[in-house]
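Entry type: protein chain
Record version: 2
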Amino acid sequence: MLKKEKTKILIIIIIFIALFGIYFFNSQIIIKKIPSLPDKVFKDNIPGEISVYDFMSKLRSEGKINFTEKNYIGMGEFIEEINGIKNGEKNWIYYINGKKANIGVSNYKINEGDIISWKYEKNY
């Protein structure tokens, strides 16, 4: 009897851990606009290797986001505008897990659990 109860508890724990992992380890992109406007958050299970640019293109094709880009040969895509807010005095800069990215959006492959944040700020 004791063995059956231990097995049931173990199964419940495994199911809980699996559900926790699915919920909390999805990758996400956060678009941080201007302080007076709300952030937009997009969570998704990323199938295989996909770049930040490819994920954003997927969101654009689904009508969830709008952006424009420019391709620089040898460097890849550069985001020029997100949801109507264009680069100018400030630029769209992306962060990977809270740290400023040091690789282009078309070259960075999203890892499980990554949080990609876009901030509209001065680039120093």
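Comment: Residues 74 and 104 are 10 Å apart (CA to CA).
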